[in-house]
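> forwarded from #structure-qc
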């Protein structure tokens, strides 16, 4: 029997939410101190949403909107960590695991630099990677989208050992 090795895969995802006064701001599963937060059906964590979509895209499995439709009251207030966990389960079922994550978050304020270590640490834990395989880039929109928080994420996937 010939041993057929699964190919390396990449996935890409994007997400954006409007910012509103007095709402919570979550990024990578970390609550960020801010007077404004994402207007969303869930906790509006753009980093976890873009990453979850990236993981699904690697297998042409659709997007998180198709699994967690925002008109469904069951998913109101849903923690995005739960979305990511479900998506990672699908990835494992396909015989894969994340090997590297790179994400760009665009937000004018608050500045995210001081939160980098905490977000990177938490995201690495959630996806099961060492921190040096979780690259985070923080940008401002230079005033082009001051009312939004946005994220773009790329993920590189490798076959699970034995696949
Ligand atoms: Zn989202």
């Amino acid at each position: 029997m010939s041993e057929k090795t699964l190919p390396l895969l990449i996935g890409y995802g994007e997400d954006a939410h409007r910012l509103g006064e007095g709402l919570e701001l979550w990024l990578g599963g970390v609550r960020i101190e801010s007077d404004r937060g994402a207007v969303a059906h869930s906790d509006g964590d753009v980093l976890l949403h873009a990453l979850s979509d990236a993981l699904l895209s690697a297998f042409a499995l659709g997007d998180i909107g198709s699994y967690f439709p925002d008109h469904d009251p069951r998913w109101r207030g849903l923690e995005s960590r739960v979305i990511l966990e479900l998506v990672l389960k699908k990835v494992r079922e396909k015989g894969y695991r994340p090997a590297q994550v790179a994400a760009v978050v665009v937000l004018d304020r608050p500045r995210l630099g001081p939160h980098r270590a905490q977000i990177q640490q938490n995201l690495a834990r959630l996806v099961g990677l060492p921190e040096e395989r979780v690259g985070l880039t923080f940008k401002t929109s230079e005033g082009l989208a001051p009312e939004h928080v946005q994220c773009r994420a790329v993920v590189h996937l490798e076959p699970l050992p034995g696949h």
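QC bot note: The mean pLDDT is 94. Residues 80-93 form the longest helix (14 residues).
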